[in-house]
Amino acid sequence: MSTRDKTLNLILFGPPAAGKGTQAKKLVKDHGLIQLSTGDMLRAAVASGSDLGERVKLIMERGDLVSDEIVIALIEEQVDNNTDVAGFIYDGFPRTVAQAEALDAALTGRGMAIDSVIRLKVDDAALMERISSRFAEQGRKDDNPETFGVRLGNYNKQTAPLLPYYAAQGKLAEVNGMESIDNVSAQVAAVLEMVKAKKASEKKGFFARLFGG
């Protein structure tokens, strides 16, 4: 067994305005996980002045997209530098099947794997209605229904191929994202408990096979 067999690796999927950020913060607070946000990692790398950070800085200054290879390198750096944490939440990555495969490979090389992909399942029409109502009341530019519709469409296109990828691995869990924050948190917590129980069972089975139990 890996020395990091207890480390949890979670992916949290959720469209804009579904409360993904709220749930991620709660996981960090309640379970001691580290949220690995692609944007935060890129900014931190640039600020660090490391060799990798300098590469990222030059790419961003040119206005180019940071390659999957660099994002994976940043993730590996965070994982390697935080060996004593309960686990990680991957936020904003992966967005494609190729990225998912690269992440799987990076974790496998460290004796780890994605344990669960938690999808906050929402009703698109209800979300649009919520945003439209809020825009009518507050007039916030970021709540413009037209802009939000584009963001929601992009999210659905990006995640569509990833859902069957993780479902085929038996790792996709869906929770009702339209319920209250507390109810969604309870559903997410229940998924976590199942994941922990499965990991404990696998560890017990491993030692039983090892010692002929």
Automatic annotation (TrEMBL):
Q: Which UniProt keywords apply?
A: ATP-binding, Cytoplasm, Kinase, Nucleotide biosynthesis, Nucleotide-binding, Transferase
A Pfam family matched by this chain, by name?
ADK
Main localization is: cytoplasm
For whether the record's keyword set contains Repressor, the answer is no
Give the residues the record marks as binding AMP: T38, R43, D64, L65, V66, G92, F93, P94, R95, Q99, R140, R151
Q: Which family does it belong to?
A: Belongs to the adenylate kinase family.
**Function, in words:** Catalyzes the reversible transfer of the terminal phosphate group between ATP and AMP. Plays an important role in cellular energy homeostasis and in adenine nucleotide metabolism.
| Summary of subunit composition and partner proteins | Monomer.
What protein name applies here? Adenylate kinase
Q: Which gene name does the record give?
A: adk
